[in-house]
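Minutes, project check-in
Item: structure for the 257-residue chain
Input as provided by the requester:
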Amino acid sequence: MAGGNDGGMRATAEGWKDFFAHSQYTRFATAVVPPGQTEAEVSQLTGLLGLRPGARILDLGCGNGRLAVPLAAAGYAVTGLDACEPLLAIARDRAADSGAELTLVHAEMKDFGDIGRFDAVINIGTAFGYVERGEDDRAALGNVFRCLDSGGVFLLETENRDHKVRIGRQVWFEMAGTIVWCHRAYDAVSGRWRERIEWMSGDTRDAVEYSLRLYTVAELADMLSNAGFTVAGAWSGLSGRPYDLDSPRMAIMARRP
């Protein structure tokens, strides 16, 4: 673990915008999703949330619509919100191809306005913590609280910090037919994980950097409680298994009283 030492990396917190908008992001993001994972996650989500048919769902940080589109196709009234317009464009095409009715909103989590009321809000696949200031993450949770109906549920699924800070710092692997190098560092003072990803595009080396605030389950539970939520439980990702420090993923669910 690097305490206050980023190993020479200088990825700014706002670098996430370039990271998600990069022309190769979707190719790599698609490659890391095994066949059947999306269908399994849709099933796990609906099971954990316990929603009635036709329930109103906000997919916060919906990206390219990987989950929003099949949820809409399953008959839920889905709104997808994301700050990256290129990814929203892909989500629009996916929805059109599938015939699903999907509302898409271009906005950041920390400052979106009145976009309707929902029975559930989901934030899945490490889509939280990229903004630079902790108060902006807290503002996002306040926005979620305000747009939920009474009794509505919020499910946040992300990296398990207690597992992630113990994994290798410099790694390489093959992804989408390309050798990728990852240079990682964790700053224990700021709680931010910084990562530089490099790969070869023909004879040219390409790279992108991002910075992500990693929260513990306890920190998220405290933030949710302060936003007005009642915390309902925490799991090892969407599996429904009890939370485990050694699980790569974690999920926490809260309810608006």
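Outcome recorded: DSSP finds eight helices and eleven strands in the chain.
No further action items on this chain.
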